[in-house]
């Protein structure tokens, strides 16, 4: 599993001109799933995201997590995180999981994040043509791959 986590002051996702998810301060997460991903990847990555200390404390230092800040999360499926650009100019997405594998893992990840956050995580719609808007706060943008834990 790969995730791009952006600390935001606000973010939203629109599908067919309807806002389907909207948050204030928190994380907008792009999540890519590959066929080898398991429940262990879900647990590790969701714990890592909830524990990231990238929010300012009373002194303005990045010492607090999204849990400390009672922040929100907007989770967006993003198969293009597994794009291969080694050959030619057209990316290959062969490493991305097919929907029959990716959707259940994405939904489990969503559930695990909601449980750890202790509130509902906002989402887009898997496979939909989504328009994502955000105001990156900082900017703070972090890439995490569950297969690269060391």
Automatic annotation (TrEMBL):
Q: Where is the signal peptide?
A: none
The source's superkingdom equals Bacteria
Keyword Transmembrane present in the record's keywords: the answer is no
InterPro entries reported in the protein's UniProt record:
Daa-tRNA_deacyls_DTD, DTD-like_sf
**GO cellular component terms?**
cytoplasm
Give the catalysed reaction(s), semicolon-separated: a D-aminoacyl-tRNA + H2O = a tRNA + a D-alpha-amino acid + H(+); glycyl-tRNA(Ala) + H2O = tRNA(Ala) + glycine + H(+)
Keywords assigned: Cytoplasm, Hydrolase, RNA-binding, tRNA-binding
| Documented EC number(s) | 3.1.1.96, 3.1.1.-
Pfam families referenced in this protein's UniProt entry, alphabetically: Tyr_Deacylase
- Location(s) in or outside the cell: Cytoplasm
The record's GO molecular-function terms, alphabetically, read: D-tyrosyl-tRNA(Tyr) deacylase activity; Gly-tRNA(Ala) deacylase activity; Ser(Gly)-tRNA(Ala) hydrolase activity; tRNA binding
Give the primary localization class: cytoplasm
Which GO terms are recorded in the biological process aspect for this UniProt protein? D-amino acid catabolic process
Fetch the CDD domains from UniProt.
Dtyr_deacylase
Residue ranges for motif Gly-cisPro motif, important for rejection of L-amino acids? Answer: 138-139
Family (UniProt) = Belongs to the DTD family.
Under PANTHER family, the record lists: D-AMINOACYL-TRNA DEACYLASE 1, D-TYROSYL-TRNA TYR DEACYLASE
Its domain comment says:
A Gly-cisPro motif from one monomer fits into the active site of the other monomer to allow specific chiral rejection of L-amino acids.
What does the record give as the function of this protein? An aminoacyl-tRNA editing enzyme that deacylates mischarged D-aminoacyl-tRNAs. Also deacylates mischarged glycyl-tRNA(Ala), protecting cells against glycine mischarging by AlaRS. Acts via tRNA-based rather than protein-based catalysis; rejects L-amino acids rather than detecting D-amino acids in the active site. By recycling D-aminoacyl-tRNA to D-amino acids and free tRNA molecules, this enzyme counteracts the toxicity associated with the formation of D-aminoacyl-tRNA entities in vivo and helps enforce protein L-homochirality.
Subunit record text: Homodimer.
| Name the record gives this protein | D-aminoacyl-tRNA deacylase
Q: What is the lineage of its organism?
A: Bacteria, Pseudomonadati, Bacteroidota, Flavobacteriia, Flavobacteriales
This protein's encoding gene: dtd
């Amino acid at each position: 599993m790969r995730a791009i986590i952006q600390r935001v002051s606000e973010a939203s996702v629109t599908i067919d001109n309807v806002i389907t998810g909207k948050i204030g301060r928190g994380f907008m997460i792009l999540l890519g799933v590959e066929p080898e991903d398991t429940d262990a990847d879900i647990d590790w990555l969701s714990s890592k995201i909830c524990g990231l200390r990238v929010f300012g404390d009373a002194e303005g230092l990045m010492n607090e997590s999204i849990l400390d800040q009672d922040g929100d999360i907007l989770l967006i499926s993003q198969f293009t995180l597994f794009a291969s650009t080694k050959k030619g100019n057209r990316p290959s997405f062969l490493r991305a999981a097919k929907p029959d594998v990716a959707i259940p893992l994405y939904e489990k990840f969503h559930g695990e994040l909601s449980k750890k956050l202790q509130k509902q995580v906002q989402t887009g719609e898997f496979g939909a043509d989504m328009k994502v808007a955000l105001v990156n706060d900082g900017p703070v943008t972090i890439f995490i791959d569950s297969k690269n834990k060391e």
